[in-house]
Specification:
With 194 residues, the protein is mostly helical. The chain has 8 helices and 2 strands. It starts with a helix and ends in a 7-residue tail after the last helix.
Length: 194
């Protein structure tokens, strides 16, 4: 099934464990961020809590397309724009920012130093369908290894960052590759599936 806009937005925040402001201490910040998520859903034709009719949204009952109605030439670019915002710069309102932390997400994977395991483990979390090994290899080589052919290129960069997390150059190297990797994975059709 294709994710509804709400499924897409909430699953992204849960999968990447996006940190929202604490509503108990930053009421305005928390509600501002929740409103951003609500607005993203509204842009993709789902204003939760306010369906267009008593039957709900057409995507849940309209034959023959049903859930396929969530994707069209207007909503797909908006969905991709939302995921790009979240992984690239995040959304800032006042003094609060919500953003996908690509490095923190990767650190929670079982073996992030191995590029093959990293891609397989990340796809297992982000995708609901299997991806061909040839596609994984292409993604690894073109994005994570930046065109290099040896896996140690990523392993050395990851280990350099782990040995000295305060080294901004080492951090920037892994951050840039991971950011681009997750952005690419979320722009593929497989990420739209629930």
């Amino acid at each position: 099934l294709i994710k509804s806009p709400l499924d897409l937005a909430v699953s992204l925040c849960r999968e990447y464990q996006v940190a929202f402001p604490d509503a108990a201490t930053d009421y305005q910040g928390a509600y501002g961020m929740w409103d951003f998520i609500r607005f993203q859903c509204l842009q993709s034709n789902q204003e939760f809590g306010d369906p267009p009719s008593v039957s709900g949204w057409p995507s849940y009952y309209q034959p023959p397309q049903y859930y396929e109605l969530w994707i069209n030439t207007d909503t797909l670019p908006k969905r991709n724009q939302f995921t790009d915002i979240m992984v690239m710069n995040g959304y800032t309102r006042g003094s609060s920012t919500i953003k996908v932390d690509a490095v923190a997400f990767t650190q929670q994977l079982p073996n992030p130093g191995d590029p093959n395991a990293l891609i397989s483990d990340a796809m297992a979390i982000l995708y609901r369908v299997p991806v061909a090994d040839t596609s994984k290899a292409m993604i690894k080589t073109s994005i994570l290894l930046s065109g290099q052919t040896s896996d140690y290129y990523w392993t050395n960069a990851w280990n350099a960052y782990l040995s000295n997390p305060s080294d901004m150059m080492a951090y920037q190297t892994v951050y840039t590759r991971l950011r681009d990797l997750y952005r690419y994975l979320m722009n593929l059709a497989e990420y739209q599936l629930a």
